[in-house]
Amino acid sequence: MSLEDLAKKAEEGFEKVVDAAKEKAEEAKDKLAELAGDAKDKAEDAKDKAAEAAEDAKDKAAEAAEDAKDKAAEIAEDAKDKVEDVKERPPKTPRTRQRRSPKTPRTRSRTSRTSSRSESPEGGRTERFAPLLHTLTPRRFYIPP
Fold first, then answer.
1. DSSP string spanning 42-107?
2. Which residues of 18-42 are buried (b: 16+ CB within 10 A; e: fewer)?
3. pTM above 0.70, yes or no
4. Residue 56 and residue 62: Cα distance in Å, rounded?
């Protein structure tokens, strides 16, 4: 083999290695582009999900605010109705003891409350009930008359 043949074979081998390297580089480039596209799609999906979750949260907050507003309006309406009911009722008059007119006669005499007999109240209950009270009083508290 001559030097020219060796140089030619070396050049052909070098070209094959360069072509193989270019091919591998192209495959790697395609693979990276595919991975980058997948990552971009996943990022967009995550962004969409986050936006959707934010929208749902916003809707729920608006709904809760609306419910609270309705509840407050309902409570205010109930309070207003109660105030109107109170205003419509006649005012309560304080209960006072009913007095009889001076023309109305008593049904019992005053002495009938203090005594069952027709004795005057001057004799007093103390004199009449003293023997009974002394009998009922325990001995240690007994004070002789």
1. HHHHHHHHHHHHHHHHHHHHHHHHHHHHHHHHHHHHHHHHHHHHHHHSPPPPPP-PPPPPTTSPPS
2. eeeeeeeeeeeeeeeeeeeeeeeee
3. no
4. 10
- Residue identified by tokens 């002789």 is 144
Q: Contact at 8 Å (CB) between 101 and 108?
A: no
∠ CA 53-57-58, nearest 5°, is: 115
Angle at 70 between CA 65 and CA 75, to 5 degrees: 125
Tell me: the pLDDT tens digits for 68-121? 999 999 999 999 999 988 888 776 766 666 666 666 666 655 555 544 555 555
Question: What DSSP character marks residue 124?
Answer: -
Q: Which residue has the tokens 């091919």?
A: 23
